[in-house]
């Protein structure tokens, strides 16, 4: 009887744990895309050996979101040392964030462009000088664009102790997509510059026993405010820069 009871309890607890884990597939439309809106954000990105030590490889990332014609268009520009080091333009379906198109140009002006068609990812042959025009891959099901991870995380139905399994694919990779486990690791109030306190969910992924990343996601505004990552002995941060109202600045 005790063995049967123990087995029943174990099955119950396993069922409870399983119930708190959602697999976020493109097809099931579980992302809260109603929160998508046109917005411009900037992030300070840098690395450190230890928290508080000198900052290395500083850059600023601009991420602009536009919503129109049933699509989400996200453009990015990465600035480092007064130079645009990377430009990206991504298009997704606004109802489920299904990838449609992805374009990248690096600091050498080398171009990669991809078109997504259901389970297929192919090089876009209509884009001039596309280095990946002959690229072709097909997977079992569509996956989310990993270059848009922060926009994707902001649309998750976050709540205490929730876990999510998310299929991400880095456009152009021959080894993806793959499923990654993210979990709500807690809650915290943080301040960005002189702004008011933001009430945030903490979303965490463990890459291995030593390597991880944590994202602070504003509960109300549905946006990533901060990321802290530890990988191979280095800390990396993405910190949203405070918005500046230029219209309120006094003339000198």
From TrEMBL:
InterPro entries: DUF3108 (IPR021457). Keywords: Signal. Pfam families: DUF3108. Residues 1-19 form the signal peptide. This is DUF3108 domain-containing protein. It comes from Adhaeribacter terreus.
């Amino acid at each position: 009887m005790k063995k049967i009871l123990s087995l029943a309890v174990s099955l119950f607890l396993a069922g409870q744990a399983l119930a708190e884990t959602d697999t976020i597939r493109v097809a099931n439309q579980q992302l809260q895309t109603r929160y998508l809106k046109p917005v411009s954000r900037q992030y300070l990105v840098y690395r450190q050996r230890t928290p508080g030590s000198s900052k290395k490889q500083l850059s600023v990332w601009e991420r602009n979101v536009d919503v129109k014609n049933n699509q989400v268009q996200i453009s990015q520009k990465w600035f480092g040392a007064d130079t645009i080091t990377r430009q990206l333009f991504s298009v997704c379906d606004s109802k489920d964030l299904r990838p449609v198109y992805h374009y990248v140009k690096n600091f050498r002006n080398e171009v990669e462009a991809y078109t997504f068609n259901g389970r297929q990812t192919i090089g876009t042959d209509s884009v001039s000088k596309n280095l990946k025009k002959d690229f072709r891959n097909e997977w079992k099901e569509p996956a989310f664009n990993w270059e848009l991870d922060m926009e994707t995380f902001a649309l998750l139905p976050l709540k205490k102790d929730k876990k999510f399994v998310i299929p991400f694919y880095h456009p152009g990779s021959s080894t993806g997509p793959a499923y990654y486990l993210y979990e709500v690791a807690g809650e915290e109030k943080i301040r960005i510059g002189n702004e008011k306190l933001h009430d945030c969910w903490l979303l965490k992924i463990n890459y291995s026993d030593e390597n991880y990343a944590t994202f602070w996601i504003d509960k109300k505004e549905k946006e990533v405010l901060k990321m802290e990552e530890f990988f191979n002995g280095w800390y990396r941060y993405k910190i949203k820069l405070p918005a500046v109202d230029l219209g309120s600045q006094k003339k000198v």
